[in-house]
Amino acid sequence: MHGRPGHEPGTPRTARHGWWGVVLEAPDPGALARFHSRLLGWEIVKEEADGAAVAPPEGVAHLAFQLSDGYVPPVWPAEEGAQRITMHLDFEVEDLPAAVAHARELGAREAGQQPQDHVRVLLDPAGHPFRLYVDGNGNGD
User: Fold this and answer.
1) 95 and 33 in one domain?
2) Do residue 51 and residue 81 come from a single domain?
3) Helices 96-106 & 29-40 angle (0-180, nearest 10)
4) 65-114: per-residue pLDDT in tens?
5) What's the alpha-carbon Rg for the chain, to the nearest Å?
6) DSSP secondary structure of the chain
7) How many domains does the chain have?
8) CB–CB of 13/57 below 8 Å?
9) Which residue, of 28, 52, 69, is where some domain finishes?
10) Looking at the whole model, is its pTM more than 0.70?
C-alpha cells in the first residue's frame, strides 16, 4: 500500500512502524487477549480497560480486542434473526487434533457444524469463530 512505512529486518517491535491488524469487539478485551496469547503463542502488547492486543514476535501485525458493552456473539452457522458472523480468523496447523485439544483446554468450544474434514471451526470464549486447518497449500479453502 502506498504511504505505508517499512522497517529494517531485526528492528525491535517497539520501534517498528506500519502496524496493521484486525480488531474484534469483546465484552472483556483482556480475557480475550489472554486466550489468544496462549492459543497463538503471541505476546500481549497492550492491555487496558477498553482494549487489548496480541502480536507475533516478528512482523507488524496484531490482533486486538475492543470493549463493547452491548456485545452479542455471532451464531455459527448463521440463523435467521441471530447475530451474523461478519468475519472469522483462519490458522493453519500441522496437527489438527492436537491444535483443537489445545484450543479447548484454553476455553474454546467446537462449533456444532463443521465444514470439512481438514478444518475445525471453534468459538473463542466471546463466541468469535475461528478455523484451524491442515493444508499443505497454505489456505483454508
Assistant:
1) no
2) no
3) 150
4) 999 999 988 888 777 887 877 788 999 999 999 999 999 999 999 998 89
5) 16
6) -TT-----TT--GGG----EEEEEEES-HHHHHHHHHHHHTPEEEEEETTEEEEE-SSSSEEEEEEE-TT-----SS--TTSPPP---EEEE-S-HHHHHHHHHHHT-EE-S----TTEEEEE-TT--EEEEE--TTS---
7) 2
8) yes
9) 69
10) yes
Q: Cα(74)–Cα(26) distance, rounded to whole angstroms? A: 11
Chosen domain end from 69, 102, 120: 69
The CA angle 112-25-87, to the nearest 5 degrees, is: 50
CATH of the domain at 134: 3.10.180.10
Q: Are 53 and 78 found together in one domain?
A: no
Q: Which domain holds residue 35?
A: 1-69
